[in-house]
Design brief:
By secondary structure, the protein is α+β, with helices and mostly antiparallel strands. The protein is built from twelve helices and nine strands. The termini are far apart.
Length: about 375
Amino acid sequence: MKILVNIVRVLVGALFIFSGLVKAIDPNGLSYKMQEFFDLWGMSAFNGTTLWLSVLMNAFEIFAGVALLLGWKPKLINWLLLLLIVFFTFLTGYAYISGKFKSCGCFGDCIPITSGVSFAKDIVLLVLILFLFFNNKYIKPIFSKPITGVLLVIAAVSTFALQWYVLNYLPIVDCLPYKVGNNIPEKMKMPANAIPDSTVINFVYQKDGKDVSFTAEDFPDDFNDSTYTFVKREDKIIRPGKNNIPEIRSLSFSDKNDADLTQQILDAPEAILLFVEDLSQPVSRWQKGFEQVFQSAKNKNIPVYLITSTRPAVEAAIANTGFKDITVLDGDRVTIRAAARVIPTLFQLKKGTIEGKWSFRNFEQASKQINH
């Protein structure tokens, strides 16, 4: 039994550490997923807390996994893991049964898995943790208390330091479609191995006061406009396709006159894009660095655009800066969040390919590359 308990302990501990790490390299990803749940449940007032919840949850997963491997306070850790996995199982079960979420974000954007797989994974984990819970006596520390304490402190500090870094300097591993080297127009195309949905078109007409329905291939022999009155058309999916959604979709950048400049930007030999979702990061914190970027681009006749989902507020905030005459475009909040995990984030595009990507803390490096 002792050997089996230790095998399960290693499996559960390693899985929690891995799960926490793949989310800790991009805590905003989990934060946005939490907001999806809150919005659906009518709890949008809690959206302002999701980033801190994400950071703490990622840290706890890693800490608990390390503690379990080290054999530190097994009864306490197993209680906490049991409570956590019950919570996770509820979320993934809801996501799967409701069908309202394709992914619960359990392994971040780097390892997207369906809600069904996530739910099954959590059921298995629940069984394994219950097994450990009832066999606490076989879990023993593998190091002395001082060494165990030092290792736990290192794990905790490293986890928070990692998340602080990526929240300021962008994720160290970019698993989103807007990573450096990707060509945006290519990512907007249907995947080469896509299988489209199989659909049947059904028409509903009214004849002699009654609704009559038939498919596009099965019109009645006596059909004519004088006796049949159109009611509606229904496109029904009879067999879902596979891999038939582009990585980037619904991309649109428009000016204050609603003119769509998306294609113009993607076709340009070079363009600089500054993504500013909102003003949660005051302009004063990145103004000086971006003024250098803006001037460098102007000196080389490179068009510069500011993409935001809060244009009036942003325009007012930059009215007295050195880049007050920048072209400000409206962008979808979801698109901006996928492109820019840090507010603000700068892109250098060359014919639609992302050549450079920097958070506001690295604008000096961006300016040097533009001048190169």
